[in-house]
Specification:
Layout (H helix, E strand, L loop, with lengths): L1 H32 L4 H26 L4 H26 L1 E3 L2 H22 L3 E2 L1 H20 L7 H12 L4 H32 L3 H13 L1 H12 L3 H26 L2 E2 L2 H21 L4 E3 H18 L4
Antiparallel strand pairs: 1-4, 2-3
Helix pairs in contact: 1-2, 1-7, 2-3, 2-7, 2-10, 3-8, 3-9, 3-10, 3-11, 3-12, 4-5, 4-10, 4-11, 5-10, 9-10, 11-12
Length: 316
């Protein structure tokens, strides 16, 4: 039974992550065909697309009366994004430089989102008004980002998107878009069901599995995007990807999930997972102050991640 549900977990999570990528690609082409601003398409779809597994699995968790998975998912993903994804990115990239915009605009928003999230859940509950506040905060952030687009244009991306606009919309794109939505639904549903069964078999809290295995699995899109960006010399895309994804997780994944039902906040997450997320966020802030992240700092982040995983499973 354990092996069977473990196989279901791996397969469903893989389906969820892979078809989220297909959804993002097809939605980008649809947006371009409808003449939506390339920058707007990029800003919304990069953050939403790479965080779609977290969002869909969290909503399904609430509907399945296992809402403790939500906070484990958010915290685990945010920790994985910083300690694992940023750590590996820095190691591969040798030295990742950070631009003025990220230090003075996006980084303060990341810190603010982590603090607002902490204040909201520290009392053991996440109510509707707090959810609405998080969603409003995200839209304010997106609105500000859009308004500053003229100062921070990526000419290569603009040219690439221009090429997409010029081509006709293929039926294949629409079919992939629809099929990806169906498989995201199936993947999210069975990911949550497998977590519930595995937690019962292993006698481990659902939030622990969500914070570790799901957090790692749903951070794979961020990892692949960041590594690809490093290889192309687009180091700031790798940094921005992590920032945008974490802000989306704390504001939108928590906010949208709370609109569906009540979010349960387990004491185990508040006592260890939440402090680790705060530590990870401030580590990111501190090492970014000199506008670069070195390989040895990447190794330090990776060591913190190994400690987090080991401690969650009682191995340390």
């Amino acid at each position: 039974m354990l092996v069977a549900w473990l196989a279901v977990f791996i397969l469903s999570l893989s389906v969820l992550v892979k078809f989220s990528e297909y959804f993002t690609d097809s939605a980008e082409k649809l947006g371009a065909f409808l003449h939506i601003s390339p920058f707007l398409v990029g800003v919304t779809l990069v953050s939403i697309g790479t965080s779609l597994p977290e969002l869909t699995s969290s909503i399904f968790a609430v509907l399945a009366n296992s809402s403790e998975i939500v906070i484990g998912n958010v915290i685990g993903s945010n920790i994985s994004n910083i300690l694992l994804v940023l750590g590996v990115t820095a190691i591969i990239g040798k030295q990742v430089k950070i631009g003025y915009e990220f230090i003075h605009v996006d980084m303060p928003v990341l810190i603010a989102s982590a603090l607002l999230f902490t204040i909201s859940v520290i009392d053991g509950q996440f109510v509707l008004t707090e959810a609405l506040l998080c969603l409003v905060a995200f839209f304010v952030y997106i609105d500000y980002t859009i308004k500053t687009q003229k100062r921070y244009r990526d000419i290569e991306i603009k040219k690439e998107m221009h090429g997409i606009v010029k081509r006709k919309l293929e039926y294949k794109t629409i079919i992939i878009f629809i099929i990806s939505i169906i498989f995201i639904y199936i993947g999210a549903k069975y990911t949550v069901q497998s977590i519930i069964h595995l937690s019962e078999i292993l006698n481990i809290g659902k939030e622990a599995i969500a914070a570790t295995a799901v957090g790692l699995g749903t951070s794979l899109p961020e990892l692949t995007v960041s590594i690809a960006a490093i290889k192309r010399g687009k180091r700031e895309i790798a940094i921005g990807n992590i920032l945008g994804s974490n802000i989306f997780n704390t504001f939108v994944v928590m906010g949208a999930s709370a609109l569906v039902g009540t979010i349960i906040i387990p004491a185990t997450i508040i006592s260890f997972g939440l402090p680790m997320m705060i530590i990870s966020t401030f580590l990111y802030f501190l090492i970014a102050q000199d506008k670069k992240i070195t390989s040895w700092e990447g190794w330090m982040l990776l060591i913190f991640y190994i400690f987090f995983i080991g401690r969650m499973f009682g191995l340390i």
